[in-house]
Specification:
By secondary structure, the protein is an alpha+beta fold. It is about 20% helix and about 40% strand. The chain starts with about 25 loop residues before the first helix and ends in a 15-residue tail after the last strand.
């Protein structure tokens, strides 16, 4: 069973406007997304109570914690009481369910990204391209009475079908095919270095002979998001924002063989029912 968090009630953070949340013990666990609701209640004698409910989602595994704090408006320090509930991560999906999700959303995500080539989406950051594609498509699906795709949860863009570290042992050959990476999946890169060796124009050496040169190029990628539009062996063709063209959408490619440092995750867009929106009700 998950342990309850230290909610630091004596600091009265919940009485601030807005509440100072998440509390330090929750921040220490990792990045989150959250929703808050605050309401006022009266007991039979007319005493005013306030009720705060927070719903927190942990972005590493999408598990959820709910917190409810109730206090007397006139004396929060001595009357505040808290409850906590913890919910596990969403269930694992079968290959059949992932195939169904791809057929529902994949082509539309890739098409949305390609239609943005040459333009700036939102603030021009790389993450915004995937986020906005999912948000726009979610509205379209709902308008047609269909299940919407789950929108980005921080740097998580659906169901993780492949997590890869450059330090992992083994060959990368066939890895993308084994994970069934497809058009419309979303690539997330963290603290990566890509090293490529490229041919340079030939130069004339002694004796009049021409000789090809080689040049090593290293690209550092602290955090980057891209939409996969094709897979060829160990190469992913992508549409990305703020990549080769600053603050604009362009085409690119990533070769697993060139990643010498860092981590890479690939997400499959799935229906929002797999990980429902944050809910601040308390039952």
């Amino acid at each position: 069973m998950p342990q309850d968090f230290d909610l630091d009630l004596p600091s009265l953070w919940f009485t601030n406007s807005p509440p100072t949340f998440p509390v330090p013990s929750m921040k220490a666990k990792g990045p989150t997304t959250f929703a808050l609701s605050l309401r006022q209640e009266f007991n039979s004698s007319g005493t005013i109570y306030r009720v705060l409910v927070a719903c927190v989602r942990w972005l590493d595994d999408l598990s959820t914690t709910k917190v409810k704090i109730t206090w007397k408006d006139s004396d929060p320090l001595h009357t505040a009481r808290a409850q906590q509930k913890h919910f596990p991560p969403p269930v694992s999906l079968s290959p059949e369910e992932l195939d169904k999700a791809h057929r529902a959303y994949g082509s539309n995500i890739a098409a949305w990204a390609k239609s943005s080539l040459g333009h700036t989406v939102g603030d021009g950051e790389c993450w915004t391209l995937a986020q906005q594609a999912l948000l726009d498509l979610a509205q379209t699906y709902r308008a047609h009475g269909q299940e919407a795709p789950l929108v980005s949860q921080g740097l998580s863009h659906g169901y993780c079908i492949l997590a890869l570290s450059a330090s992992s042992p083994g060959d990368t050959a066939g890895l993308l095919q084994l994970a069934d990476v497809r058009r419309g999946d979303i690539l997330q890169i963290k603290n990566a270095h890509f090293k490529t060796v490229e041919a340079t124009p030939p130069v004339r050496k002694g004796g009049g002979k021409w000789q090809m040169g080689l040049q090593e190029r290293t690209v550092r990628v602290p955090q980057h998001t891209a939409v996969v539009v094709g897979v060829e062996g160990e190469v992913m063709r992508v549409v990305e924002q703020n990549g080769a063209v600053p603050l604009a959408v362009s085409e690119g490619r990533y070769d697993l063989r060139d990643m010498v440092m860092g981590e890479m995750s690939i997400y499959r867009a799935v229906g929002e029912g797999w990980c429902p929106p944050l809910d601040t009700s308390w039952e």
